[in-house]
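Collaborator request, handled under Task 6.
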Amino acid sequence: MSHTSSTSFSTSLTKPETASNIDIDDVTNFLLELDALKRVNRRSYVTQTTRKENSAEHSWHLAMACWSIADLFALDVNHERLLKMALVHDLGEIDAGDTFLYAKTRNTAHVEERAGIARLQAERGNGISNLGEVWEAQETGDSKETQLLKVVDRLLPFLLNLNTNGKTWIELEVTRSQVAGAHAFIKDSFPSIHDWLSQNIDYATQQGWLIDA
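Structure tokens returned to the collaborator:
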């Protein structure tokens, strides 16, 4: 029974002439390359735990948050493009590692990440022909989808910090002005989120989680 089901599944989803040219070892190798993103730890702590989130978890959270916010605010965005950009957003970190938002090397992190994307694009088992193009769109583009992605990408780690008593901020001695500066651009693209952030920057400073400087 299971053998018949598997044959039917294969026949119905793939064209025989296409499937015959695909090496499943290549496919699974690429899937394992993607799995490596789970090994890249970020600086933010997962709420109600003592562990840091990894970049694969962040990518999932980013995609879900973008989807929800886009629908809730009835934003005029292309959902497929938005979600694809969210999913590839951190893929370059497989090779480059995560770069902390306030690190001095932040402005050059894209160089190594772009090289990592190029490597993944060239993998034989990669079926995403425009992987590099989608990554570049979220990295350097100015579309509505890119703007929303950048807003939510800043919102999520802020939210985690706020709900872990500023653990990362305290550990790395982050200042109020650093956080305010990193989120300033949101005022133009999503003022209601920026207002919320500003109020909570004040709160975090009052709690002693951010250095008042």
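The cover message to the collaborator said: "Confidence is low (pLDDT under 50) at residues 4-9. The chain has 13 helices and two strands. Please let us know whether this matches your experimental observations."
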